[in-house]
Amino acid sequence: MQNDGVTTSQKLLARRKRVLGAGYRLFYQEPLHVVRAEGVWLYDEQDRPYLDVYNNVASVGHCHPAVVAAIAEQSARLNTHTRYLNDAIVDFAEDFLQEFPAELGNITLTCSGSEANDLALRIARFATGGSGVLVTRWAYHGVTAAVAEVSPALGDGAIRGPSTVLIDAPDSYRRGISLAESVAGALRDMRQRGIKPAALLADTIFSSDGIFCAPPGELRQAAELVRQAGGLLIADEVQAGFGRTGNDMWGFTRHGVTPDMVTVGKPMGNGHPVAGLVGRPALFDVFGSSQRYFNTFGGNPVSARAAHAVLKIIREEKLAQNAARVGDYLAAGLRRLAARYTAIGDIRAYGLFIGVELVLDRQTREPASELAFQVVNLLRGRRILTSTTGPRANILKIRPPLVFQTEHADLLLEQLDRVLAQCHA
Prior knowledge:
By secondary structure, the protein is α/β, with parallel strands linked by helices. It has 12 helices and 17 strands. Its cofactor is pyridoxal 5'-phosphate.
């Protein structure tokens, strides 16, 4: 792998920088060159395995044979857009909508979660006549121009929309005001500013804010306030959906609320570029009767077959139940580590979506951002791949493929133990 002291990866990195520019970023101080994957494992150019503890996009495991076969078989037969009749999208839609409350009876397929959220905002604004969108202070909902305006997590360079109103995430660790109280205050502010609300757009696990689940009923109360003011509830399930939080298919279920629209992203195709918007038919009807929406490859036959294969795998392999079982096992192991390492200030575990908040002091709860950065990179050196989240990037974000098992959890716990011991030495 060496040539005059320069590795293949170093050469590839130099080529990448030259042609892709500064907009493309890489994980880790030492970038990882991956060449193949299987299940919960990624392999580098020397065929060394790395445990993937972060990639929710490969929801049913990297290169799942059934998904690969579905994509290959349909690609060999036909791939075109939805302006022609084809059974693939209808077969999938009929089956997929069974996973939602009966009120949510329509779906539009897109290629990405960004597009799904963009379309949801267009429909909400058209149906309500409002423009205001309520989002949490460190939310991330995508990268189109419209959705970037409601994604403060993109950073100061992403300009917030004039009708974007920020609310507090339900931070169970630092105990701020409730989600409903924050929404009520935001609605009062909007009335004073003459902004009519269109929607509350909420990631139902509040992932970018730090991985939180509001106390039972809070999101429902917040939605009721928004609806009374003329707006809608859009549940962003790109990260929380598809059984990720254990047992339930969707994150909104644990909140006891039925959204007006639900957005889903690339986990539905195991990484194949397919996503979608599910919602109340009346909203789709009023929007569709007045303006056109067309997405050339949203819902193409190959994407539809990939998504249908993923749906069947989640059911047949009972992956939502696996997320609950293995997630509980992993959370228990993390709590044992917390008893030994005071840098672990809090553990927030919802199935296979876990946040481990690192702090400098448990009393002050000051975020340990540098420590989190160090831990992530030391774990990468031990061939364990994860990342961070939260406004201060001090929360370890554990979100592996849904096929993650207890032996994989043991490996993560063992290596995290060693890294934390190294950091405290």
